[in-house]
Amino acid sequence: MPLLPDWLLPGRPDPLGATWDGLGINFAVFSAHATQVDLCVFDAAGRREVARLPMPECTDEVFHGYLPEARPGLIYGYRAHGPYRPREGHRFNPHKLLLDPYGKQMAGTLRWTDALFGHRIGAPCGDLSFDRRDSAAAMPKSVVVDDTFNWGDDRPPQVPWDQTVIYEAHLRGLTVQRDDLLPRERGTFAALADPRVIEHLQRLGITAVELLPVHAFLQDRFLVERQLRNYWGYSTLSYFTPEPAYLSTGGLDEIRVAIRRLHAAGIEVILDVVYNHTCEAGETGPTLSWRGLDNASYYRLTPGDERHHIDDTGCGNTVNLSHPRVLQMVMDSLRYWATAFRVDGFRFDLASTLGREADGFDAGSGFFDAIRQDPVLSRLKLIAEPWDIGPGGYQLGRNPPGFSEWNDRFRDGLRRFWRGDSGLRPELAARLSGSGELFDHRRRRPWASVNFVAAHDGFTLQDLVSYTERRNEANGEENRDGHGANFSANWGVEGPTHDPAILAGREQVKRAMLLTLFAAHGTPMLLAGDEFGRSQQGNNNAYCQDNPVSWLDWSMAEAPAGSALLRFVARATALRRRLATLRSPVFLHGRTEPWPGIADTAWFDEAGDPLVEEDWHDAEARLLALRRATAGGASDQVEVTLLLVNGTAAAHRFRLPEPALAWSLALDSARPDDAEQPIAGSEVTVSGRSVQLLVALLSTKDRPA
Fold first, then answer.
1. Rounded to two decimals, what is the model's pTM?
2. pLDDT of 124 higher than 90
3. Burial degree of 447 (CB within 10 A; 0-12, 13-18, 19+)
């Protein structure tokens, strides 16, 4: 480390964070209620504090200072002075070293000790007490970085929404068990960049990888004490710092190389981000960053009882996005990842929290307005998880234009239909149509509905057909955690079985659900590993299972059943890519006729007769035919598809609706390896619990006058 001055020059209040200009580093950190903020500089090992320098200036509630001759690689933290009055929401404690909220890299790991808390653990007055122990030895530190990178000819794929197929994956779990990768690279961004991983995604027809949180996160104390780990990462420690465990080299360019290679393969990268809460938990949690810098500004506190945090997230605290500086932090974080790493979009965890103002959820909240007007962020793929546990937290279909939303109505409706529940034919029709009753307003499009059968939170596809009840005992919560209503069925035996009939039945139901997913309007999302039958042994809340329960077992992709399912998924996504009727960019209402007598969308029963109003009220009806038509990819063709759905256990004959067309069977979920073939006659047999997709192409040269 070069010899540094023992004082700071005034510097500038912007940009926030630590910024190297080639001659030194400018430090700027927001706190509305601190009386003083000290910059603490550490040696190269991050163990010894070599300088403590008070910030010389404060402009508009931003403390700032400039350290001449300092360079990237400098290790630092902050200490904030101010009132310690918890009943008023103030918890300043200069004995606690604080991470820079804008820090972009991290040195060291957190070591749990009572010294990390601003109050004395076990004191009679609890969090009203004051702890004077120095926490620096147990704290990770922030590191100054230089974000220069040669992006070469990188071009974001900018895949249109209606052509998007999302693959939700955990970065570590995706590759940690791939024996064909270097051991040190497994479970990191380096593995994501490997050509073999990218080839798998391309084979599946994936256009976007949605990664579970890659922001640095905390290994929560209660999990460490149970000898478990925070696997999912929804416990953010820094909004700008990548999780160190995901970097095989320790360098940030590893992320950029991975994204550049994925872009070259036509694959976008979407990050799952957690701006609704932090890892500091409630008022009895540790003091690591935001709490120590300005608890009353960064968090939403109970009005009139500011000692306590509002908890709309179930994680102890709620980030206060109503504060302009806190909102700025979130916007700056998003822009940093969008520009410094060129990510293509974000999935917002508990987005209802982000959109909640003093009077409740507001689609015109400051958060939504800030993103929608931003010239960088507004162009990206933006996905909302439209619920939280706060008041009025369920907001499916109510997020603003420009956002798509995870559609749990699609998930639950499909599960219940294929499980055999009654009265689900109208629900299935609505989901196949892009959930227009939820999204067809304010010029929103079908892609606003992110459709999925399984996601990280809940059963995998394999477990949906293998378990009727969750099996979460390994989480140490006596099987009380996780969703109780999974709408699953085991089809004869709970859990694994060697019964060939049960295994065949499970595979058939899985294929039926997958083909329904890829034939539905909206944006399909596939959970990583579902393409070859990954199981979590019935655990539907594997947030703390950083082990083979959660990791992908790639040997399953080579096994007969896994290989067959993978081929089926690849065929289904290829058909979606080829057939415009499966991915309409607009909602279809049956009001136009691309061909005389053939509406853009129409519904029929198994006799080939159009469904009328009373037919939709038949609770026991489980047969359905959906015909769609549109101008095809070629200017002289009209493309027509017919989806035949049999939700009963027995095979049924379907009469093909008039007019008679030259149909071909493109894919049958009951006979997944059959090649495409012409249909002879006016009827087809659809096996029980299966779906058939038929295609016909009409030449406009033959259009009737």
1. 0.98
2. yes
3. buried
